[in-house]
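Figure 2 data, in text form.
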Amino acid sequence: MSGLTCNELTRLLVGPERQGDRLDVFLAGTTQLSRRAVRRLVADGLVRRNGDPLRVQSRALTLGDVVDVLRPPEELGVPPLPELTTPDLLFHDHFLLVAAKPAGVLSQPAEDRSPDDPSFDNQVLLALALSTGRRPFLRMLHRLDRITSGAVLFARSSSALAPLTRAWAEGRVERAYLTVVEGHPSTDSFEIDRPIARDRGHRWRFRCHESGRAARTKVQVVARLDSGLSVVQCLLITGRTHQVRVHLSDIGHPVLGDRLYGSRRADEVDRPLLHAASLTFPHPDTGEELRIECPVPEDLAKFIP
């Protein structure tokens, strides 16, 4: 739970640890109000959810709901708003947004994760809810691995979700990744066309195998470094799990830091250096082609001459 305060209003946000609570249970647990006092406030029309007055205190709340109580915060005993993680929005309008996911953050919630380890989609949802005063429509169109940084696309309305999903399915979304690999590829520009299947001997690992699904990656060498490393850009023609990591490892040039796929110099960096550098796609309303670039994080940028 997080609180946002002003002189005559107390704003509360339903976080992962409180989703599913009844309204009266939520307010009694996040303020100094008794459940009887909560019921009186609700009956008097002094409680709103997502901007609309509530008359039923037993209503269950949803992640990202914004609850406003028309009483000053000192009356409710609400502490000041703690500092929240504010995602870096690369582009946004009424139809969509593209945000920069940091490395180390899950794209979406996992069953075994604590509410204190918020996923990226929840961070974006809660930030939008606080800024608008109501729970927004938000759907993530794709995921990045936890170790990967970069651009993530969200639909902000149901009318935008269908055309964005269709563009994705039809291959009209271009995804470019930037990475550092071990060794120097033999040519500067080439394509890897090798199917990818799950590795039966490892729960989280994939491999190139003829039994897998078709996978194609275009690779362009950006720089060959004296240290025996190369900076490369990868353009995904298909979108398989771990595709860039699997393909580069399979040709003998694993992503620097990627222990799962054979990096021999993993101790030199804190994570596999893989960054979703740009997304290009048709706008769901106008059809105009958008190209959204995501700034390269410092840990990867230092390898670029």
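Caption note: Residues 277 and 295 are 7 Å apart (CA to CA).
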